[in-house]
Design a protein that fits this description.
Layout lengths: L2 H14 L8 E5 L4 H16 L5 E8 L4 H18 L2 E6 L2 H8 L3 H20 L3 E3 L4 H14 L3 H4 L5 E3 L7 E3 L7 H11 L15 H16 L4 H9 L1
Parallel strand pairs: 1-2, 1-4, 2-3, 4-6
Antiparallel strand pairs: 5-6
Helix pairs in contact: 6-9, 6-10
């Protein structure tokens, strides 16, 4: 799929969820990786092509986990936002300290703090929707993790495309790329020659998500079903 076709598909998805109104204020969670960088570019381009006048607010969370690499991520996202004329907002947290004091997993606390920040940002700028960039492969990994941990029907359905960002909040968390495969995202980034950042912890097995992605799924593909990701997505659907 080429960029123009992708934009039209995305516009159709947003329209189906009543998210194509002119003058919307969007908060976009951007890490600097290919998925969130492409999502920001796509929302900017849809607004420009269709004269929607969307105000884009880029939210970037520095989790205090990766030192100079994370500092460089923040600088990169600020530069991308500036290039697109979007407002840039950064918040910093010390997730390792929070894990030591509160317990829990690094991944869960980082996600909790990130969503809290994005909701606060949305309320501050008058936005009712926060766009984040999990994609179809992320959804398959989530379903597999839930199966292994133990889940019911709701867990098997994977991530929700649109939901309140926190229970009782009127701010909606929107996942416009949830139907898009990682391979297509990377292809489109190459087509557009988009520079992106790479979080190297995603390439290893230190965290649960990395173990599912880089150890468990490759083993299942090799030993049981080369199309296991597609099978998991069908199950969720």
């Amino acid at each position: 799929m080429r960029w123009d076709a992708f934009l039209e598909q995305l516009r159709g998805w947003l329209d189906a969820h009543e998210l194509v109104a002119p003058g919307l204020r969007w908060v976009v969670g951007v890490s600097g990786g290919p998925d969130s960088t492409l999502l920001l570019q796509a929302l900017h381009e849809l607004s420009r092509q269709h004269n929607l006048g969307w105000a884009l607010h880029v939210g970037h969370m520095h989790h205090g986990l990766r030192g100079a690499e994370a500092d460089a991520d923040a600088e990169f996202v600020a530069a991308v936002a500036g290039k697109l004329g979007a407002a840039f907002h950064e918040e910093r947290a010390d997730i390792p300290a929070a894990v030591r004091s509160e317990g829990g997993s690094t991944e869960e606390l980082a996600r909790e703090r990130r969503y809290q920040f994005l909701e606060r940002l949305a309320l501050r700028v008058g936005s009712e929707q926060v766009a984040v960039a999990p994609h179809a492969d992320d959804d398959a990994e989530t379903v597999l993790h839930r199966i292994c941990r133990g889940t019911g029907l709701r867990g098997l359905a994977g991530m929700r495309a649109v939901r309140p960002i926190q229970p009782g909040s009127h701010v909606r968390l929107v996942r416009p790329l949830l139907h898009v495969r990682r391979e297509l995202i990377e292809q489109l980034c190459n087509e557009l020659e988009l520079e992106c950042r790479i979080d190297h912890t995603n390439l290893g097995a230190e965290f649960t998500r990395g173990r599912v992605r880089n150890v468990v799924l490759p083993t299942l593909r090799k030993e049981l079903n080369p199309n296991v990701t597609e099978a998991l997505l069908r199950l969720a659907e």
